[in-house]
Amino acid sequence: MSNCINNWVSLGDTCNLWLKDFSLNLTAELMGILLVLFSVNQTVKNSQEKEKNKFKEIAFRQLRYVLRKQIYLLFEMFKATVEVRPDKDYQVLVDLFDDTYFNEVKYLDLLSPAPMVTSQGDEMDWLDYLHSELLSLKSALGQVVDRYSFYLDSEVVDVMEELSDSVFIRFINSIWEAKNINAIGDRGDLLSACKDLLREYATSLLKLMELYNQSAASDRQITMDRRKWNDWWSHNGRPKIGESRIKLYPPALRD
Asked: Is residue 182 part of a domain?
């Protein structure tokens, strides 16, 4: 009887040891599986993040050229309108768009010659120039959103769509179409009617450029400094300072 009891106890101890070893092995196996799954998941996430960043970089690379052209276009409008260079220390992009800018640019004569010619070498007026550049920006934004919106942050897509659907762009397009059917005559002063629209457009443009700079490498960012501003102001080519400002005549002579 005692032998049976001893055998039973011994068998129980053996079972306990086996169960303990089995539990340890099972735990080790599960830990190994979890570590593998975590590693695979992390690798996939890293790969997806790299792919997202790659396509984001491609998307912004396509925008860099047109964004820079927009800033220079808006500067040219200002330079062609002001009578004298403002006594201001321009350093960064946002410095351009102060109250002086919007109060002066409204005097741009849209029907006067712009510092640009067509691909055939024909002269363009400011309205043609503006329409062409805004259309180019709108097209570039649309292509980027269509192709890369999956890889871009929602805020970036929202700002792109906001800029693309700008009321200022629609306003310029409307008066450009009106000009082509001779519906505006010699009214080159129509920019004075959209001062607030231009301000909203500039705000959206700066917002998009800020988002671009946050994602771009330092050597690809769109920035301005005192030297660049001075170069732009001192450039001897067109536009000259004030060359496209609307000529304001005394009331008695306007008719």
From this structure: yes
Q: What is the pLDDT of residues 38-66, one digit of tens each?
A: 665 555 555 555 666 666 777 778 888 88
List, for residues 76-88, the tens digit of each pLDDT value: 999 999 999 999 9
Cα–Cα distance, 128 to 123 (Å, whole number): 10
pLDDT tens column, 225-239: 999 999 999 988 889
Structural domain tally of the chain?
1
Q: What pTM value is reported for the model?
A: 0.78
Domain membership of residue 202 as a residue range: 55-247
State how far the Cα of 75 lies from the Cα of 115, in Å rounded to an integer. Answer: 12
